[in-house]
């Protein structure tokens, strides 16, 4: 699997029991099912574009989250709530 050009989906914000941080987002990468596969993506840049194309936010994959292949990405600006469930490009 090529690391560049993959697609990931926004699953959720990073959450605590009483708070959430919109700059940190959990991503599920298409075709990745284990933490060892997901570890190869740490340090890669990601780009989220709004559905209408007016807004784009850059970020970077920070670490692996759990053992099912999800990763945590930090974005420069907080993502809006409409971003949950949308695609993110791994550059």
Question: Would you kindly provide a brief summary of this structure?
Answer:
With 91 residues, the chain is mainly β.
The helix count comes to 1
Please state the average pLDDT score: 95
Q: Roughly how many Å apart are the termini?
A: 14 Å
CATH architect. name: Beta Barrel
Stretches where pLDDT falls below 50 for ≥5 residues?
Answer: none
Q: What is the N-to-C order of secondary-structure elements (H for helix, E for strand)?
A: EEHEEEE
Largest beta-sheet characterization: 6 strands, antiparallel, barrel
What portion of residues is helical? under 10%
Account of the 3D structure:
- This protein is mainly beta and 91 residues long.
- The protein has a single domain (7-90), classed as Thrombin, subunit H (Beta Barrel).
- The protein is 4% helix and 48% strand.
- It is built from one helix and six strands, in the order E-E-H-E-E-E-E.
- The longest helix has 4 residues, at 35-38.
Task: Produce the secondary structure layout.
Elements lengths: L6 E9 L4 E10 L5 H4 L6 E5 L6 E10 L4 E6 L11 E4 L1
Any descriptors?
91 residues, mainly beta, Thrombin, subunit H, six-stranded antiparallel barrel, 6 strands, 4% helix, globular
């Amino acid at each position: 699997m090529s690391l560049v050009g993959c697609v990931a989906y926004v699953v959720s914000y990073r959450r605590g029991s009483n708070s959430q941080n919109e700059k940190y987002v959990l991503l599920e990468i298409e075709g990745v099912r284990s933490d060892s596969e997901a570890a190869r993506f740490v340090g890669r840049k990601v780009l989220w574009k709004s559905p209408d194309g007016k807004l784009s936010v850059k970020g970077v994959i920070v670490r692996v989250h759990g053992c099912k292949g999800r990763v945590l990405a930090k974005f420069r600006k907080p993502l809006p709530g409409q971003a949950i469930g949308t695609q993110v490009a791994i550059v």
